Amino acid sequence: MAESRGTPGSRQVIMRSAADLFAELGYRNASLRAIAADAGCDPALIGHYFSSKEALYDAVVAETVRPAEVFREAVGRRDPDAAEWLLRHAVADWGDPVQRRRILGVLRSALDLPAARERLSQSLVPEGVAGADEVRLALISSLLVGVMTSRHMGLLPPELTKDGNSAELVRALAPAVAAFLAADPSGVARPDSGE
User: Fold this and answer.
1) What sections of 26-96 are H helices per DSSP?
2) How do residues 130-185 score in pLDDT, each as one tens digit?
3) Is 10-53 assigned to CATH 1.10.10.60?
4) What ranges do the domains of the chain cover?
5) CA count, 13 A, side-chain hemisphere, 28
């Protein structure tokens, strides 16, 4: 029988099920009923923890795509190790096949759903980051999304895609990320500015 009240860990079980189904089916096709069935709970329990499907998706994105605080700290650093530090934290989950599939699911949902795209953008460029730092993070985020997608498509050399060993990937990407962190993108118009 599905549970109707939360038990310790219910919220996390729901989030794991939602992350898996969003990854497998996409945001639009992952119904709250399907998520509840996968989590072994009553659909009303989802409403107990999350006010809506959108709120559940927000929680999944926040849990799955976690670079916001890492990015915020990285743009404030000016030391030579900032790029490697950022990359070690940003790609830490890429070696875990389950987490990687969830990240790809978030990216896939963002491709065809404007609200999902906005939520992903907020996770990648944290609130309060503006100006040159916003441009830097947008460039770094774009690079990482491209590399993650290329990794999934098998376009990267095998030495950069070994599960559980991101050191080679970090070393390969560090010069590009360091250049973005050091760049002065003044004069670069924001994509939505119309300039």
Assistant:
1) 32-39, 43-49, 53-64, 67-76, 82-90
2) 888 888 888 998 999 999 999 889 999 988 887 767 899 999 999 999 999 888 87
3) yes
4) 10-53, 65-182
5) 8
Q: Which two tokens stand for residue 170?
A: 């970090």
N- to C-terminal Cα separation, the chain: 57
Cα angle: 53, vertex 55, 61; to 5 degrees: 100
Tens of pLDDT, residues 41-98: 999 999 999 999 989 988 888 888 776 778 878 887 778 899 999 999 888 888 888 8
- 95 with 165: CB under 8 angstroms? yes
Sign of CA dihedral 67, 25, 119, 156: positive
d(CA 50, CA 15): 10
For 64, 109, 155, the CA distances from 106, given in Å and listed in that order, are 8, 5, 20
State the burial class of residue 176 (Cβ atoms within 10 Å of its Cβ: 0-12, 13-18, 19+): middle
Helical axes 10-25 vs 32-39, angle rounded to 10°: 130
